[in-house]
Specification:
This protein is mostly beta strands. 6% of the residues lie in helices and 41% in strands.
């Protein structure tokens, strides 16, 4: 056996500089070692705004972590914050004890304590990491994690972009009680806006004080410099706790190649990328002429213009960037149906089949339910190793739900009654409001244990919309 070698990775600030290729020496190492320290962080993405945040290694978002697929990760988590915390490795198929879910896979790490997460990250792609104890994600405990795929087509340059927001913490309790007065701020003519019924009272909304990209708000965001002739890759994460994002680059079409880090069966060209809470998309564009353009998170919020970054060619640093309207009127945006195409419906075959009705959320209610129950009384998905599992969702509420499955990838095989010709491999997917349906298929081949399935809207999850997948034939399952 050859002796393992290690790299201790630094914790530089999160900014939008181009991601440099990993060196040959870094690629040859067996183990990549990081230390991630959670601590309280004063955060000011715009002048005259101070947010009592909480970040990894003193920054929000935390540092971009990178390994090559096949390398082992050893991450020492040190908690120096005022509250208990964990790290969930979102999108990873890993040992259950490494999944980082408080009171399901591990006790929370208390102030002053530490915990070592060690596993071989799989599958490759754009993943992320975040706290899985209530309050940590809202305050800033998250970061992007790139597992490089040696089989990927190389880009001329690529950027890691975290779209995130500063919540008004005083509105979270009201949102959990269903009595918040914060408005919806999705872009005009978006599905979220058009789905609203007259006199809708959306009491679960959180209000936000600033919208950010990589820790700053426009015009203070770090620009992205590109060159004419380059093919540019964007790795984008929506780390907002509650809201979908629509990302558009003025003057360009974007070619989406990966969803949640997983390659699409066929790339899709769009004007804008719709990114639900916790979703990631890899999108490419070509620089065909000199200029300056805004890459924006579109929104009807008056603050929305702050969630933007300038993309420019050399010599255009001071040019007024071309911008996009804060509306989806007449533009083509990414959707599961468009990416997957339609197919003739044939019977789905599985060893186990489950149907979940997503409900609750009435005004002044603190219950978001699965089949009428809230966690921990929701029905569980009990599987045996090797099963093919079919899960049907029907959403009876007035809000989309970004449903996330830990420790597995699933195929989206049907949306709103239409079978997809090319199922999308995902770990998080938006189930449409007001009667929307979705069907997943996944293989029960992950390590033994309890794996959470929940809505990644933090308000909905904390108010009960979660269940779990349990391997009933494994000795260590419970």
């Amino acid at each position: 056996m050859r002796r393992s070698t290690f790299v201790r990775a630094g914790a530089g600030a999160m900014f939008a500089a181009a991601l440099a290729p990993l060196s040959r020496a870094a690629r040859a190492r067996d183990v990549v070692e990081y230390t991630l320290t959670a601590r309280d962080v004063p955060f000011s993405p715009v002048p005259n705004l101070r947010f009592d945040g909480r970040g990894f290694n003193g920054i929000i978002p935390g540092p971009v972590l990178r390994v090559v697929h096949g390398q082992r990760l050893r991450a020492t988590f040190v908690n120096r914050s005022a509250d208990a915390a964990t790290i969930h490795w979102h999108g990873m198929i890993l040992p259950n004890a490494m999944d980082g879910v408080e009171d399901v896979t591990q006790p929370a790490v208390r102030e002053g304590a530490s915990f070592v997460y060690e596993f071989t990250p799989d599958p490759p792609g754009t993943r992320w990491y975040h706290d899985h104890v209530s309050g940590g994600l809202e305050r800033g405990l998250y970061g992007l994690f790139i597992v490089e795929d040696p089989n990927d087509e190389p880009a001329d340059t690529e950027f890691a972009l975290v779209f995130h927001d500063v919540p008004r913490l005083s509105t979270i309790d009201a949102a959990m009680a269903g009595t918040s007065h914060a408005p919806m701020v999705d872009p005009l003519n978006s599905p979220e806006m058009t789905a609203m019924k007259p006199n809708d009272r959306m009491g679960d909304e959180v209000a936000y004080a600033a919208h950010c990209v990589n820790g700053r708000s426009y015009p203070n965001t770090e620009p992205l410099q590109v060159k004419v002739g380059q093919r540019v890759r964007l790795r984008m994460l929506n780390a907002n706790p509650t809201q979908t994002r629509y990302v558009r680059l003025a003057g360009h079409r974007l070619t989406v190649t990966h969803a949640d880090g997983n390659p699409l069966a066929r790339p899709l060209d769009v004007d804008a990328v719709r990114i639900g809470v916790a979703e990631r998309y890899d999108a490419w564009f070509e620089v065909t002429q000199p200029g300056a353009w805004l890459l924006q998170g579109l929104s009807s919020d008056p603050l929305a213009f702050e969630q933007a970054v300038v993309v420019h060619t050399p010599g255009m640093e001071n040019a007024t960037p071309k911008a996009s309207p804060q509306s989806l009127d007449g533009i083509e945006f990414f959707s599961y149906q468009h990416a997957g195409g339609s197919a003739t419906a044939t019977p789905l075959r599985g060893d186990r089949e489950f149907s979940f009705v997503l409900g609750g959320g009435e005004y002044a209610s603190s219950r978001w339910t699965i089949n009428g129950a809230v966690w921990p009384h929701t029905p569980k998905i009990l599987v045996r190793r090797g099963d093919t599992v079919i899960v049907h969702f029907k959403n009876t509420t007035g809000m989309d739900h970004p449903m996330h499955l830990h420790g597995h990838n699933f195929d989206i095989v049907a949306v709103d009654g239409t079978r997809l010709a090319h199922p999308l491999v995902k770990d998080t997917s938006l189930v449409r409001s007001n009667g929307g349906t979705m069907t997943w298929r996944f293989a029960a081949t992950s390590p033994a244990g309890r794996w959470l399935l929940h809505c990644h809207n933090e308000i909905h999850m904390m108010d009960g919309m979660r269940t779990e997948v349990v391997y009933v034939d494994d000795a260590h399952s419970s």
